[in-house]
Amino acid sequence: MENQSQPTNIFNNGPKQNLTNATAVLVLGIISIVGCFCYGIVGLICSIIALILAGKDLTKYKVAPDNYTVSSYNNLKAGRICAIIGLVLSAVYLVCVIIVLCTFGVAMMSHPDQIFNHTY
Fold first, then answer.
1. CA 26 from chain center: how many Å?
2. pTM for the predicted model, two decimal places
3. Does residue 65 lie within any of the structural domains?
4. Residue 14 lies in a domain
5. For residues 7 and 43, what is the distance between their CA atoms, to the nearest angstrom?
6. d(CA 26, CA 116)
7. Based on the structure, what is the number of domains in the chain?
8. Among positive and negative, which fits the CA dihedral 62, 63, 66, 68?
């Protein structure tokens, strides 16, 4: 019999593995959408962390896509999309909260005598 050696891939060292932060990115992306209603701050923090982790794993996947499972890559993409949506919603919500607070503050400062003098 002839000894046939298979070509080896220097990046593929065994079975495919999951991307390390794919699940965390997905969870943080979902939390960022829900967290945008907490004055936008929780959503901003979670979405920024999710985008940083997604960027790191995306570069790992681009270097050696054969090492990682497709399902973990799909989770990473979904989490990244959720994080982008959460970032936009949180930023819009935070800007709206700032506008309302500034408007309320200007209204209160323009009539300070009416703040504590209520007649019912």
1. 8
2. 0.78
3. yes
4. no
5. 47
6. 48
7. 1
8. negative
